[in-house]
Amino acid sequence: MARFCHIGNILHPFFGSFVALPLEMQLKGARNMDNLLSSPTSALDPSEAQPPAQRVYDRAFFLLCGGTVLFMASFGMLLPELPAHLATMGGEAYLGGVVGMFTLAAFLSRFMSGRIADRAGRRKVMLIGSLVTAVAGFGYLVATSIAAFLALRFFHGLSTGFRPTGTSAMLTDRVPRHRRGEALGYLGVAGNAGMASGPALGSWLTVEWGIEWMFVTSALLGVASLILTWMLEETLPGARPVRRSDLNPFGGGLIDPQAWPAAAVLLPVALAFGIYLTITPDFVDHLGYVYKGSFNTIIVVSSIAMRFIAGRLSDRHGRIPVLLVGTLLLAAGMWLMGSAEDKLVATLGGLIYGASIGINMPTVFAWTADLAQPGKIAVALGTMLMALEIGIGFGAVYSGIRFQGDIGTIPELYYMAGAGALVTALALIPPLLKGRRS
Predict the structure, then answer these.
(1) Residue 198 vs residues 78, 159, 353: alpha-carbon distances, Å
(2) Tens digit of each residue's pLDDT (9 = 90 or more) over 41-53
(3) What total of structural domains would you count in the chain?
(4) Cα three-residue angle 222-181-263, rounded to 5 degrees
(5) Given CA atoms 64, 65, 66, 69 in this order, what sign does their dihedral have?
(6) Which range marks the domain in which residue 365 is found?
(7) Which CATH number fits the domain that encloses residue 175?
(8) In terms of DSSP H, where are the helices of 288-342?
(9) What pTM did the predictor assign?
């Protein structure tokens, strides 16, 4: 059975975190886009408020990253154990629904989380996300029926619809434009650290103490994330209480069309991630990995290593050139994993794939902030992250239907993900060349 339920535990930032759709070229942004492609940090709206000169890596930054580590570990630890747990409940036939409910909730909540963050404050949105994941952790202890589990998965999905949007918006408020990529890259390191440690801790707790203690620990990590977030000060000027109008889905201001280019580039990254999470557990088992989580650790470590430098490179050389490298690496990593017949080739493919994630995610987040209309950074980030949910959901569902436990279909699914990345890379070349000529 395909491991659909893995996908419901994404974030983002990760992934952290994150294609050629029509651009808003009929607006005044047409000329700005040409400049942005060649030097994204110099073509921004000068009316956008600049943060005062200050240390970027201060107490608030580390509180933000610490809360992110705990948040990601809280639901990341469910990744290796949730499939077996659902099987013991007799839920094999409902695994697709479990993923669908989680992803649907994350997708729908992004229509509101960005607007709330831009009007009522970043901190409130982050607190909602951390609170939801804490409550959900305890909820798994009592969700003993399939119906209750489905409802809980939908509720849990709200956490990733809220927390990453508020976190990225708050960090963007705190750093100068020319250091956005760098800071978002380090925030991604925090997210990856949580995703790397969470599954290992979850598996150990389940084996040594029982799955109930894993759920309790997940909830406690959510509470700890909530506490660190509570200690942060709001960064949005004029933040106000959440109003009923903020929750009205027909009240306007739900998406920022200027974020579409970044969302378009994120789509194949998310598609590949959905495919990866669905078929890779069976792929590594087929290759003889004793500890399945070790392969995921390889990818996470590679991603963390690249995040230390990718964001800074995008600040210096532009978002488009760095994304071109990242999408080409994504295509190469998928191709190697698709052709792997032993652990060595699979590991090499995993290292390259992890590097592509570490390059693409912070750069896409920074590019989204560059493209955002003044005062709508959180809405733009929410718009971009919708592509994450769509890509992950489609990749997971399609690969699950196609896979059906047949190991022979794994190469073609990896190749499909690589083809999407290659098409995106080719689509980035014309605007890159146009930007260079400008």
Answers:
(1) 8, 16, 20
(2) 433 443 344 444 4
(3) 1
(4) 75
(5) positive
(6) 4-10+56-236+257-437
(7) 1.20.1250.20
(8) 292-317, 319-339
(9) 0.75
